[in-house]
Structure prediction request, 421 residues.
Amino acid sequence: MDRISIRGGMPLNGTIPISGAKNSALKVLAAALLSDQTLTLENMPELADTRFMADLLRSLGVSVVWARDSGVATLHAADIASTIAPYDLVRKMRATFNVLGPLLARVGHATVSLPGGCAIGARPVDLHLKAFEAMGADIHIEAGYVKAAALRGLRGARIAFPFVSVGATEHAMLAAVLAQGETILENCAQEPEIADLAACLIAMGARIEGAGSPTIRIVGVTSLQPARHRVLADRIEAGTYAIAAAAACGDVLLAGANADHIGALINRLRAAGVEANVVNEGVRVRRVNGRLDAVDVDTQPFPGFPTDLQAQFMALMTLAKGRSRFKENIFENRYMHAPELTRLGADIAVHGSEAIVTGVDKLVGAPVMATDLRASVSLVVAGLAAEGETVVNRVYHLDRGFERLEAKLKACGAEVERLSG
Ligand code: UD1
Prediction:
């Protein structure tokens, strides 16, 4: 299994191009199932997760032509050959579960494995299933699979989510596009990826209003048209490199990053003493020498501080002056990186959903291991600031969500190598 070696202490200086957003790409790929016309997606990030989704779509009968050099994927679901998403695929990558809604809407039935829990928490999908039931689908769970049927088609419905869920908002939107009549979704998530999915669906001919606000209105259509959509820039990748630049004492231009999408992070970085400025090309992050101030972090749905940046920010705070308090409000088991950061010399005490980080003078490199994508990259961030060599094991987590990670860091002066085997 590949590992990544980081020799810490080198400042990061230069430009990092921000890739297309993984969490948006996966949903717009699933949208291709809704239409018998072509969908052309630009800025498609080449990641293990997007490859997985493309493979699943092919197994369902979708033609996927993906020009890796240009990042353009052309999808055509002229006919749906299968409506089954097997356990082996859904277990490996949860977002594959999102083919359920489009298959149900287009064909009237689907059999999709339940994703199960994952390293960061239980992650149920009850809200997704309740939304489909409200639209008239019959849902049964059998042998670990969701068997869903709406043989006379889905019907528009009023669905008030009891709490904010990005996944359920997107999945209900996907299904409602082809439902008969009007669907009103209330208490929706407002993440930028939701507006991006809506933009793609609207280009395909869907009638959607209000995406990005708490209430989304969708009027079902009977057919869709050929469309072209550009996947938005990955705010989590941008945020990760912003934190990396701060950790390594650098001056980095995050080319293509949208500051509005990482406002909560920029606020925390500035409070800690990092310069973050909006420039024409994106966002420029600069830290001069001297210790940062400790600041607190409370993860919240957008526009709050994203759970997907909590681990990376914790890595940064391990070297700050004073104590920072973290509160993880989205997932129940999202501090798996804390014991690994402690192996580098960090002082972190976890109490349930809270963690107290007491800044130390230095981190010292060590071999480390992580259990999920964002936790793994937090160890890379820590490694950039640590003395000596840090070796991050289980690189496949990083490959799931960071396009050309080593190349992007190396281009800014980091000493990062992939060790194979
Ligand atoms: C979440 C994050 C998203 C992040 C992604 C990957 C939030 C609000 N969402 O999205 O920003 O990119 O993880 O790390 O920050 N839940 C249920 N039942 C459901 C669906 C969700 O109980 O049917 C719960 C989840 O367990 C979680 C909360 O609702 O505690 C929010 O989950 P949700 O937003 O759906 O998760 P993701 O879509 O994976």
Q: What stands out?
A: The chain has a mean pLDDT of 96. The chain has two domains: 3-18+234-419, 22-221. The chain has 14 helices and 24 strands. The pocket of uridine-diphosphate-N-acetylglucosamine is lined by residues 23, 121, 123-128, 164-168, 189, 191, 301, 306-308, 330-331 (CB under 6 Å).
